[in-house]
């Protein structure tokens, strides 16, 4: 968290920052600036310009400036986007419920007095100039069956590990992966290349439904499986014990009965 769904909500909120003259950049936390990016470099690139587009690729929010520069924003597990003092999303799983300005890691100020900022308690997000979009795979909202077959449903690696690989499909995080696999009846630890075409089609169907549900309901924490993500819980679908395992390096919940 945030996952592709949250970043899409952030992208929509960032549209309120478009076509406004940028007057200043605040970058008090050098750790938050990634690669060779510095606060001075960001200011030189965008002050005096406007953002003309807000795009999303997976979990990366990209703001295009009128001068052609691109500003990439990542939000880690706990980052919020705030535009003109309004948080784009009210609740993030695994983040603090506090709304403390001391967690502001980066901000862009506009000449009209408003601003766009990232508030991130755990500092796991980041800002980078000219992000490498080519390093990311197909976007989760537009991925096709053919791309899933070529990039996910291949090899002996666990299917969940494939799904979490942002170079294959960008935007799927732990909660989306578990929810889709649970709905589709697919074992997260099963080898990615072992699924038949009918399973692959079923997965894509449920992926699209989950994304639509999560966007409508306000985030990746709103899944049907989510309330049962605790030790000793039972499957909300069939009442069987849930398995709690590490798959793909992440804590994973799945049904011992209907996910195969």
Structure commentary:
This protein is α+β, with helices and mostly antiparallel strands and 260 residues long. It has 2 domains: 4-134, Alpha-Beta Barrel (N-terminal domain of MutM-like DNA repair proteins), CATH 3.20.190; 137-255, Helicase, Ruva Protein, domain 3 (Orthogonal Bundle). Helices cover 25% and strands 23% of the residues. It is built from 6 helices and 13 strands. The strands form 4 sheets. Strands 1-7-8-5-6 form a 5-stranded antiparallel beta sheet, with helices on one face. The longest helix has 21 residues, at 197-217. 42% of the residues are buried. The model has no long low-confidence stretch (mean pLDDT 96).
């Amino acid at each position: 968290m945030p996952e592709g769904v949250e970043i899409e909500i952030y992208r929509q909120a960032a549209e309120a920052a478009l076509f406004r003259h940028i007057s200043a950049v605040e970058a008090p936390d050098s750790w938050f600036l990634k690669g060779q990016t510095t606060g001075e470099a960001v200011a030189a690139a965008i002050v005096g310009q406007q953002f003309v587009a807000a795009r999303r690729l997976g979990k990366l929010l990209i703001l295009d400036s009128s001068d052609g520069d691109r500003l990439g924003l990542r939000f880690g597990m706990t980052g919020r986007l705030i535009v003109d003092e309004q948080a784009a999303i009210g609740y993030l799983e695994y983040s603090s419920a506090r709304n403390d300005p001391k967690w502001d890691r980066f901000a862009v100020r506009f000449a009209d007095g408003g601003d766009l900022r990232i508030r991130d308690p755990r500092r796991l997000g980041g800002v980078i100039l000219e992000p490498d979009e080519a390093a990311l795979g197909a976007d989760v909202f537009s991925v096709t069956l053919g791309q899933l077959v070529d990039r996910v449903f291949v090899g002996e690696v666990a299917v969940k590990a494939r799904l979490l690989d942002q170079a294959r499909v960008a935007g799927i995080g732990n909660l989306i992966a578990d929810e889709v696999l649970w709905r589709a009846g697919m074992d997260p630890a099963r080898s990615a290349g072992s699924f038949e075409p009918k399973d692959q089609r079923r997965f894509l169907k449920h992926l699209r439904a989950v994304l639509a549900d999560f966007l409508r309901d306000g985030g990746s924490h709103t899944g049907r499986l989510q309330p049962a993500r605790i030790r000793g819980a039972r499957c909300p679908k069939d009442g069987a014990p849930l398995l709690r395992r590490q798959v793909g390096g992440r804590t994973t919940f799945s049904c011992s009965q209907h996910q195969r």
